Prior knowledge:
Layout: H1 10-22, H2 26-33, H3 37-47, H4 77-82, E1 94-95, E2 104-105, H5 118-124
Antiparallel strand pairs: 1-2
Amino acid sequence: MAEEKNSWTEERLEKLKQLWDKGLSISSIGEELGVTRNAIAGKAHRLGLKKRQSPIAPKKAVAKEEPALEEITDLPLRLALRKLNWSRSKCAWPSGDPKHTDFSFCGKAVTSGKPYCEDHCREAFTTSRDG
């Protein structure tokens, strides 16, 4: 029985890995191996091959001396939020503007069954409306 052209033999897998490491485009690798670019992309993902820069995503200019992450005071929100130390046992009362890196949560021990500490529970949960 003849081996099917599109089967992933050990030799073809090794060739895929070599071409991937050389930096060839997914389409070029597909042409070389006689399969679609989607087949290459799927197989590369399943093999856990390292991700590469998208050819349609703009490449960022790299400065000669990039400052350390701690030196950047205006981090994007998604990066700044990663630095927050949060847990369900700590008060989640927000402090500061969430669009800036000095944003944080209170962090004191929570009142049982509430998301806030005793002080912030008094502020958040009222039984009457004061004028």
